[in-house]
Amino acid sequence: MASYDFLIVGAGIVGAAIAYRLAPHGRVAILEKEAQPGYHATGRSTATFVESYGGQAAHLLTVASRGFLESPPADFCDGALLARRGNLRFARPGQREQLAQTLAACG
Length: 107
Hints:
Layout: E1 6-9, H1 13-22, E2 28-31, H2 56-70, H3 96-105
Parallel strand pairs: 1-2
């Protein structure tokens, strides 16, 4: 049985950051109940525009809203509501095909 010095519950941005800071001081384990890290508040942050998020309905709505967000009407706001920034995706070896399909769907 493995032993750890620190146990972090939740693999969102806060849990991951705490684990990162504790790692130099001992063995760290992160417990996450969801299938992927950052699934809840972190993964749903309005600071990120992710066309591949959610099911088909969410995907279609997200794709359809891109033009408005990049170039809203002049009387709506002073400039674009989106700013380009990076996004990092992870996949296990068995998920590579699914990841490739997801990324291809985003263009």
